[in-house]
Amino acid sequence: MLRPLLLKRSLRLHHHHYHHSSNPSHSHPLRTLTPQNPFLRRFSSLPEPNTDAETRKYIGYTALLLFCGAATYYSFPLPENAKHKKAQIFRYAPLPEDLHTVSNWSGTHEVQTRNFHQPENIDELERVVSEAHKGKTRIRPVGSGLSPNGIGLSRIGMVNLSLMDSILEVDKEKKIVRVQAGIRVQQLVDGIKEHGLTLQNFASIREQQIGGIIQVGAHGTGARLPPIDEQVIAMKLVTPAKGTIEISKEKDPELFYLARCGLGGLGVVAEVTLQCVDRQELVEHTVVSTMDEIKKNHKKLLSENKHVKYLYIPYTDSVVVVRCNPVSKWKGPPKFKPKYTKDEAIQHVRDLYRESLQKYRVERTRSKSSDDEQNIDELSFTELRDNLIALDPLNKNHIVKVNQAEAEFWKKSEGYRVGWSDEILGFDCGGQQWVSETCFPAGKLATPSMKDLEYIEELKKLIEKHEIPAPAPIEQRWTGSTRSPMSPASSLSEDDIFSWVGIIMYLPTMDARQRKDITEEFFHYRHLTQTKLWDNYSAYEHWAKIEVPKNKDELIALQARLRKRFPVDAYNKARRELDPNRILSNNKLEKFFPESETI
Asked: Which of 112, 413, 470, 579 is positioned for an S-S bond with 314, CB 3.0–4.6 A?
């Protein structure tokens, strides 16, 4: 009977100790347990002591009782699987030193692993892959961790090539460059500019590793330009079953095209040979238009501009049109004097932020926090937008005001910018965010189907009908086709064009509850687009942005959709031949591409 009492005592003391409270006295737990303890009830029923000797006697009995109980508890041999030994009351133990925490850029996906390999050369990479294959130990290839869906993550193990980041060979005459796959896009561009070369196109950011950016089918914008994987003319893969192989359109073309957008499942991309272009300066022209004006000029905008994209602002009729062309087309940089300075263009956004801070401070009856005291005048537009949204991210009326301020900002920012292509084609995407991007056919360059604009009109109606707190922008870009069959823009016709549309919700806070609420709202937003638009427009999500459904029926439906668009059987066949033990796989790939049509 004494034993469980002391067990409770020890747990209570452990609780106080863990949270750094003051040390409890020996009598504290006994006082708590007195009404239920027959030993202590016996003490309480004794007559009141008449002498100091009797008092000392009972104090001695109490001390002896405590000592015996403690000795019994800590010395009695218990089985290792005793329930109270297994219980984990607290989970605040520090992480082991060998445990690596890897998360994607948006902080939406995170894993912890003890197996994180970073080989420094191809010999080490081959050894890592070979040992993993023999031991049937997973080592999922992961790049810079920029994919919003964390497609490269695996808690069982990963291999990262960030230490294999060299430019191996440059053929200036043929404009061909061979690099290690761990090199980052910006690092590559900086390394070949002295040779007068650059990449044909760029995604919005430059931090991706080359191996990763091609494996997920990333893209830039320009209806005449294919996705980035089409720039690859040869690859070196380190495979589990067949070792290191070199493939190209001349050497094993079927596997080459399949592996260019191979999602890291056919081998670890060790080296990439790229067809580059001459480095050139571009003129970027930004103007705010409307959907009616866009409809009249859409075909011309797609065909006459090397790069073009539209940024739609929900709950407004504003469409930001950004087009980029070589300086030579303009016969030199255009002469243009902007109507507003940069400070004047952004001032109304600062004013809105100050007003909103005051409003929400009053509504929440809180004092001015240190976060509010930052120098607002030093924040960029995207930082101001993030901070504004953070005040009330799921309030539709608040988001409408923020979007209206953004539309006004772009109107005051109309004008031209001149720079090298790698500088101009980048885009400040803002802070952490959830993203869903779909790709669908949009006709041919000479005869656009106009389905791309219809998609946007339906999307904006959905947003307004369901009062979704959708922030700006909805980004729309275009590419040509690619011969990589696993790309959402794959086509055998070189004249086909594809539209890519991205929707977002920012995660401007680290508050777990608020991030959870935003996440739920985003997936509601995404689900509406999926059910109302995707099948009607033959739209498929970007591989780096597609999420695995938790619902079994939804997962089966996703698998069926993927089979309609992509050569899943051919991809799985190649996986069986090159990686029979699935050491390069992860949960996402296994869910996307099961060996049979059933789960």
From this structure: 470
DSSP state letters, 30-75:
HHHHGGG-HHHHHHHTSPPP-SHHHHHHHHHHHHHHHHHHHHHHHH
Q: Answer whether 447's CB lies under 8 Å from 440's CB.
A: no
Q: Which residues pair with 307 in a beta bridge?
A: 324
pLDDT tens digit sequence for 356-396: 999 887 665 443 444 455 689 999 999 999 999 999 999 99
Cα–Cα distance for residue pair 584/568, rounded to 1 Å: 17
**Per-residue pLDDT tens for 391-424?**
999 999 999 999 999 999 999 999 999 999 888 8
Put residue 349 in one of left, alpha, beta given phi > 0 → left and psi -120 to 50 → alpha.
alpha
H or E segment and range at residue 462? helix 451-465
More confidently predicted of 95 and 172 = 172
Of 103, 127, 460, the closest CA to residue 294 belongs to: 460
Question: pLDDT by residue (tens digit) across 549-594?
Answer: 999 999 999 999 999 999 999 999 999 999 999 999 999 999 999 9
* Alpha-carbon distance values, 428 to 131, 171, 203, 205, 284 (Å): 41, 32, 11, 8, 15
Q: Which residues contact 106 (CB under 8 A, 6 or more apart)?
A: 148, 432, 433, 434, 435, 507
Calpha distance 251→235 (Å, rounded): 10
SS3 content of the chain, % helix, strand, coil (to 5): 45, 20, 40
Residues 77 and 426: their CA atoms lie apart, in Å, by 66
Partner residues linked to 581 by β-bridges? none
**Confidence tier at 175 by pLDDT (50, 70, 90):** very high
412: number of CA atoms within 13 Å, CB side? 17
